[in-house]
Specification:
Blueprint (H helix, E strand, L loop, with lengths): L1 E2 L5 E4 L21 E2 L6 E2 L5 E3 L19 E7 L2 E5 L7 H5 L1 H7 L20 H7 L6 H4 L24 E4 L5 E4 L19 H7 L14 H12 L11 H4 L1
Antiparallel strand pairs: 1-2, 2-6, 3-4, 4-5, 6-7, 8-9
Length: about 250
């Protein structure tokens, strides 16, 4: 994948078109040209062959400008580079369907990555995806602490009950699991009084935690409404609709 002079990105098979030698070994870098270490053929960042040794001696004539790198379909969206090896593939927007609109609202391409972690191990990545496509396992595997009502929720504040989870399957074949935001139930005592850190967060947005004693499940929506009401002076208006924020 190569950044072009106009700011766009092109993707190529990492193969010299002369004798099939691997062209690039480094994961990242900056070069003016890609030079094959086998016969020194050189390609510009746009994939064009611009140098071949003894070009005048090829019986099929000079290969420069003709035997170029093989390009793949490549698009950028949501801060990622998307590559497809099928030359007849549909556009990325058509492929993603409704997911395109969901992600577009977050303006992910403006985000900055501060931490990146990589884990390598003898596991099947498809099992991980399978796990995140259902919430039926949560009460068994994660076992939240607290009152019987609180054990139905994870400490992250997400309502993990499969009865309240929505599963969508789009015409494009993608699926998504939508879990409504819960509340920080683990911060409540037996009398239902809201503790830290949720109490301080509520006060920051002009809400009195004592008004929600025994009504912790209402804090999420109350905070959303308070942030819309008070937050206009603190931060730009969000492009994400309320239902998606929840």
């Amino acid at each position: 994948m190569v950044r072009q002079s106009d700011g766009g990105i092109k993707a190529f098979y990492n193969v010299c078109q002369h004798r099939g030698n691997r062209l690039v070994s480094d994961e990242t870098g900056h070069v003016n040209r890609f030079v094959c270490r086998y016969h020194a053929w050189a390609f510009n960042p746009d994939g064009e062959l611009v140098f071949a040794q003894d070009a005048e001696n090829f019986p099929e004539s000079n290969p420069c400008g003709k035997v170029n790198l093989l390009e793949l379909r490549c698009e950028t969206f949501a801060g990622f580079i998307w590559v497809n090896m099928d030359p007849e593939c549909v556009s990325l927007r058509e492929y993603l369907g409704p997911i395109w609109e969901d992600w577009e609202r977050y303006e992910i391409h403006k985000w900055k990555r501060y931490v990146a972690l990589t884990v390598e191990g003898p596991f099947n990545w498809k099992v991980v995806l399978d796990n995140f496509n259902e919430s039926y396992h949560v009460p068994t595997v994660h076992k939240p602490m607290g009152t019987p009502a609180e054990r139905k929720r994870m400490h992250s504040g997400v309502d993990t009950s499969y009865k309240n989870t929505r599963f969508d399957l789009s015409d494009e074949g993608h699926n998504r699991m939508i879990m409504p935001g819960g509340y920080a139930g683990a911060t409540m005592n037996d009398e239902g009084v809201i503790g830290e850190p949720l109490a301080s967060i509520m006060r920051e947005w002009a809400l009195d935690p004592l008004d929600f004693t025994g009504r912790g499940e209402e804090t999420r929506v109350a905070l959303q409404e308070a942030k819309r009401r008070v937050g206009a002076e603190r931060a730009p208006r969000s492009t994400v609709p309320g239902a998606q924020r929840r």
